[in-house]
Amino acid sequence: MQMRLIKTFLFLLAISPAVVFAADYKDFFDEGFGDFQEELENAVDEGKKGILLMFEMDECPFCHRMKRTVLNQPEAQDFFHEHFKIFTVDVEGDLEIVDFNGEDTTQKEMSLKQFRVRATPVFQFVDLEGKPAKRGRYTGATSGIDEFMLFGKFLVEGVYEEMRFSKYKKAVAAEKKAEAPKG
């Protein structure tokens, strides 16, 4: 009985860092009031690079996977909060909002008509002028925290102005491979 108790204690001790270091995915997002034009002004005032939108829907398994495995990580939360205002948009939502142009709309209308979201999740970078960056978009779940952080770096460094994320990712992988010790 005592040995079983010790094994249980050791198991709980082994998994506790994962529990301690995982945060709530809700902490990844900023609390907004549905006025994206105002949020854009806040982003400028706070010295952010822009706004990152996560287009999602309740029944999306890939959205839930991102929340459980990536967006709940303190590393991602700290990095993205440093550089962006971050909000969710429900692609099926009837909630009335004000878009980046100051027009009244709903989350659903903005998703479909302005951002042409057809699948979720979609992470879309919007610059400080309220324009969605052409190459600042990622559709689907990332393979994990490393790819998501790389996407963040891609946005922060402005590489999206020069190339697609897939090309950037290949270039970074090739650079790492070239730097790796040969043996």
Automatic annotation (TrEMBL):
<feature type="signal peptide">
    <location>
        <begin position="1"/>
        <end position="22"/>
    </location>
</feature>
<keyword id="KW-0732">Signal</keyword>
<dbReference type="InterPro" id="IPR012336">
    <property type="entry name" value="Thioredoxin-like_fold"/>
</dbReference>
<dbReference type="InterPro" id="IPR041737">
    <property type="entry name" value="SoxW"/>
</dbReference>
<dbReference type="Pfam" id="PF13098">
    <property type="entry name" value="Thioredoxin_2"/>
</dbReference>
<feature type="domain" description="Thioredoxin">
    <location>
        <begin position="12"/>
        <end position="157"/>
    </location>
</feature>
<dbReference type="InterPro" id="IPR036249">
    <property type="entry name" value="Thioredoxin-like_sf"/>
</dbReference>
<dbReference type="InterPro" id="IPR013766">
    <property type="entry name" value="Thioredoxin_domain"/>
</dbReference>
<protein>
    <submittedName>
        <fullName>Thioredoxin</fullName>
    </submittedName>
</protein>
